[in-house]
Every structure is written in C-alpha cells, then in structure tokens.
C-alpha cells in the first residue's frame, strides 16, 4: 500500500513538472518536435522526488494527445501544405510548358518548309471530306505543254 501511494505521488509530481514544461511550448512546435523531447527531467523535480529516496535518471513523454479540435487543425494545416506544394509544382510545369511552346513557335515562325507542310496538311484534310480537284504549280506552264 505504501509503495503504491509513493508511486502515485511520484507520478503526480512528474506529471505536474512535465505539464508545466510542455505549456511553455505552443501546440504546433510541440507537435513537430514531440520526438525531440527526450529528457524532461528538471532539478526541481529531482529534488522533490529525492525525498522519497528515489533518483530520477530520465523523464520522457510516453503519449502526447491533443484535443480533437487541435488534431483537426493539424490535419487541415498538413493538407494545406501538401496542396500548396502540389499547386506550386503544377504552376512550374505550366510555365516550363509555355516556355517550350514559345521557343518552338519562335523557331518555326519563318521556316518555309514548315509552311509547305502546313499547306499539304490542310489540303489533305480538305481532300478527306469529299471529291476535290487540286492543281499545284503554275497553271500557265501546264496549258503551254498541252
């Protein structure tokens, strides 16, 4: 019975000191650095517990839980960060694509061969839609030969 009471009093003392130390941090920092909080032992805590003839070597957080509303805020914050990162990547891709298209357009702007291929493609599309007669070349040379 005495050992159980001593354990309970030590537990309460440690809880009190840890809570006081944790309240010094804001919840976002606490959540991000929860794994870094490896030794929360303080001299005051060690002195108070030494009255029971016990020496504290190390104090660690076993569980750290936030209220549901705070957990929801953390989830929304994480979602917003991921969404912003994705949107930034999409914007970078769009800019790179636009830049590549502009460069290609500049290269093709005055190319006679490209213009010729565009004309041939247009004529092919027109020809696919029906029966048409196309004459390519100088018509006066065709008439003189006949």
In words, what does this structure look like?
This protein is 68% helix and 0% strand. By secondary structure, it is mainly α. The protein has two domains: 1-64, no CATH class; 66-130. It is rod-shaped. The protein starts with a helix and ends with a helix. The relative contact order is 0.06. The mean pLDDT is 80.
Q: What's this model, at a glance?
A:
The protein has 146 residues and is an all-alpha fold.
List keywords for this structure.
146 residues; mainly alpha; 2 domains; 6 helices
**Uncertain stretches of 5 or more adjacent residues:** none
Distance between the ends: 126 Å
The structural domain count equals 2
Query: Helices and strands: which structural class?
Result: mainly alpha
Strand content: under 5%
Based on Cα principal axes, name the global outline: rod-shaped
Structural topology:
Elements lengths: L1 H21 L4 H6 L10 H8 L17 H41 L3 H17 L10 H7 L1
């Amino acid at each position: 019975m005495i050992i159980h009471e001593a354990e309970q009093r030590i537990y309460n003392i440690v809880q009190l000191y840890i809570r006081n130390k944790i309240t010094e941090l804001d919840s976002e920092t606490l959540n991000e650095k929860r794994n870094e909080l490896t030794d929360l032992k303080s001299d005051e805590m060690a002195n108070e517990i030494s009255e029971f003839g016990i020496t504290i070597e190390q104090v660690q957080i076993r569980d750290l839980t936030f209220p549901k509303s705070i957990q929801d805020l953390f989830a929304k914050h994480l979602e917003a960060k991921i969404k912003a990162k994705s949107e930034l990547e999409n914007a970078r891709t769009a800019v790179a694509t636009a830049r590549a298209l502009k460069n290609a357009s500049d290269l093709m702007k005055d190319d006679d061969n490209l213009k010729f291929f565009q004309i041939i493609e247009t004529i092919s599309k027109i020809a696919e839609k029906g029966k048409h007669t196309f004459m390519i070349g100088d018509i006066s040379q065709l008439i003189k030969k006949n």
